[in-house]
Amino acid sequence: MSLLGNIIWLIFGGFLAGLGYILGGILICLTIIGIPFGQQAIKLGIATMTPFGREIVVTESAGTVLNTIFNIIWVIVVGWSIALAHLMGGLTLAITIIGIPFALQHFKLIPLALFPFGRELR
């Protein structure tokens, strides 16, 4: 089921969304200051490309001071808009029965979009 779900997800927009996150992350990495944020954008892009069969796991370093500061900066600058886009996409897909599994994947990506530092998708 997860393979089929990921293939359908990629065909209907997941590939372009993930590619956008990855390209944006690469551009952010061009600045030295933006490297940690670019890495998180790339991680979010990979997670967006294949969300079925994976889960968000909080790492041991999630509560460190540096990760907390980076998460606060991330939420203020871009995290809220990415999370809002996933929320709106999920609500739109949840209207139909066929779209519910895809809506759940959007909802699963919201915490990763809000606070990517100290979380990973396994």
Automatic annotation (TrEMBL):
It comes from the Bacteria. Coiled coil: none annotated. One of its GO terms (cellular component) is plasma membrane. Residues 4-54, 69-119 form the Inner membrane component domain. The lineage of its organism: Bacteria, Bacillati, Cyanobacteriota, Cyanophyceae, Oscillatoriophycideae. This is Inner membrane component domain-containing protein. InterPro entries: Inner_membrane_protein (IPR052937), UCP028777 (IPR031308), YccF (IPR005185). Keywords: Membrane, Transmembrane, Transmembrane helix. Pfam families: YccF (PF03733). The chain crosses the membrane at residues 6-35, 56-77, 83-104.
